[in-house]
Design a protein that fits this description.
The structure is a homodimer of 332-residue chains. Chain A has two domains: 12-107 and 294-313, Rossmann fold; 109-286, NAD(P)-binding Rossmann-like Domain (Rossmann fold), CATH 3.40.50. By secondary structure, chain A is α/β, with parallel strands linked by helices. Helix content of chain A is 27%, strand content 16%. Chain A has helices at 43-50, 65-69, 92-95, 109-125, 127-135, 159-170, 198-201, 224-229, 247-255, 297-313; strands at residues 12-17, 35-40, 55-58, 78-81, 101-102, 151-155, 174-179, 191-194, 207-210, 235-238, 261-264, 284-286. At the A-B interface, helix 4, helix 5 and strand 12 of A face helix 4, helix 5 and strand 12 of B.
């Protein structure tokens, strides 16, 4: 782990890259004594400010601008992403550089776990069915499902997957995690299997939850074979990254009744195009990449960056440092 | 507590009253060695079979037929209701008789608690908003709410209310119960207040959940004053009985933005009429009195009755005996 000692009293030049439609992140004012903030939301501005920036804060997880601006990043010493996923930053030149990447590990865990638990209960209790009947003013009793005792397979046993296991486990669901390697014991999962056992575990699950980072190992992981391995009664939940799923294979599995439903917060293409078949499928739930975004999330992300920046100024090791070869922050 | 010793080997005549559109309850075949089952779903048949029945099993919680058949119930010694609420059976003649009433306490607790937790998460995460946007193929990011730390006021601290407190408490929500009397300590609720403190507690709650039986004390309890006491951001959830709520006062409170939403599984009039204003309100969730009805619920209800019937045959005290003056099964 490299430390970054910062000498003297000069202000650190920090480039902040944000999405054009979002505006600059709030809550960075406390930095102004020790840092100069330079904001960009387009390629030309980013190129220009990277010329002098030592630190880059990236608040837009969808952007490719950093890769294109890379030749201009002459003095850069640290990149912080205000997202859990850093897939867009793992282009070869950055991956192979010695510039550390840190992420927002921890901020989204609990909100996302609540979101996933809510979706599981929504399916068990058929809330979407009740809301659809409501539009027709139609009273119709149905039997519902007991959530307790259901089996959840959580693909990705990092900080977010672990929190999902805690909350669903607290409600009496059985939890299995899929990690890069199987583990003999785990404090939060009933069991943790290796990624080579995915196809053996899929047929046992009532709910399959994707909470993995997008890496070479997970890209397109949910394909026809994976959906074929699931039970026809099973529901698929993706709060990870859209490209972990082959969307066409998912749509087909749903159309052919090979799985019973899908709740999707992330998509290969975001926003999901208005003419996409997923919108019209009754057992599909769509939300706009917001599972972790509880009120105050932007402020919480900035506070986490400010804390890490203070560590960096003091020459201390950075928190949440991504393993750039694996594509995520390894377990402590 | 009265015991009901049953002498000799003669078969007990059991009258079973069920709703016409539901058919007789499943899972009673095991009784046929010791009992003769007589089924009714209309007044004339009920009157006729009550003439000889010693036991009455009531599977239709909405019916007034028992009250009207009362003069014919000459040999009746025990009534079992396959519902948590027994309000329809507490007419004066039965209330003042020495015939015990038992209920389905325990069967619905956990399913209803899951249902309520799901509704709380639905509101926090705006699932109903996402489903409404989905009908328009519209991608729209919103900030959501953190469920952890929210305050739930559970009106009714019996078996169902207690289970709601357990599940919501396990998720990190703060739980206050309203019981007939305040309690110094409670294993499941953060605190339990007396019913005289309801109006003091309502302003503190993010979610108000009605899990009380319908009694003289709770009839119309949620009126204009109660809704006025709630926060404009609060949501109201009723899985108890419809008549605990003055529906017109609820509709007005919603229309005027004095509360933020309502999820209703029970109504003053069931089915909810197709032209009722509640159907069209976007922040209202409607379901068809089904919160506790997980797959296999009818069989579970019958199994519970069969077990109690065996107790009765052996002359043992009945389980789940309702205090007919208070209108519910008192805490053990």
């Amino acid at each position: 782990m490299s430390t970054n000692r910062q000498g003297g009293t000069e202000r650190t030049r920090i480039a902040v890259l944000h999405a054009e439609d979002e505006g600059p992140p709030p809550g960075l004012d406390s930095l102004l004594g020790t840092a100069e903030l330079m904001f960009a939301s387009d390629q030309a501005t980013l190129n220009a400010i990277l010329d002098t920036a030592e630190v880059l804060m990236v608040t837009d997880f969808r952007t490719n601008l950093v890769e294109r601006a890379w030749p201009y990043a002459k003095r850069l010493r640290w990149i912080h992403a205000t997202s859990a996923g850093v897939d867009r930053l793992l282009f070869p030149a950055l991956r192979n550089s010695d510039i550390p990447i840190t992420n927002a590990r921890g901020i989204f865990d609990r909100p996302i776990a609540e979101y996933v638990l809510g979706l599981i209960l929504m399916y068990c209790k058929d809330f979407h069915g009740s809301l659809a009947l409501k539009t027709k003013c139609r009273w119709q009793h149905r039997d519902t499902e007991r959530a307790e005792g259901k089996r959840v397979l959580i693909v990705g046993a990092g900080a977010i997957g672990r929190q999902i296991a805690r909350l669903t486990g607290a409600l009496g669901l059985h939890t299995t995690g899929i990690a890069s390697r199987a583990r003999a014991e785990d404090p939060d999962f009933d069991s943790v299997r290796g990624s080579d056992e995915l196809l053996d575990e899929l047929p046992k699950a009532d709910f399959v939850v994707v909470a993995a980072p997008l890496t070479e190992a997970t890209q397109g992981l949910f394909d026809t074979a994976a959906f074929n391995a699931m039970q026809p009664s099973a529901r698929f939940i993706n709060i990870g990254r859209g490209a972990i799923v082959k969307t066409d294979a998912l749509v087909k599995a749903l159309q052919e009744g090979r799985i019973a439903g899908a709740a999707l917060d992330v998509f290969e293409q975001e926003p999901l195009p208005a003419d996409h078949p997923l919108w019209a499928m009754p057992e599909v739930f769509v939300s706009a990449h917001m599972a972790g975004d509880v009120v105050g999330w932007r402020e919480a992300l900035s506070a986490q960056f400010v804390e890490n920046f203070e560590r960096w100024r003091r020459g201390e090791p950075l928190a949440n440092q991504v393993d750039k070869q694996r594509g995520y922050v390894p377990q402590a």
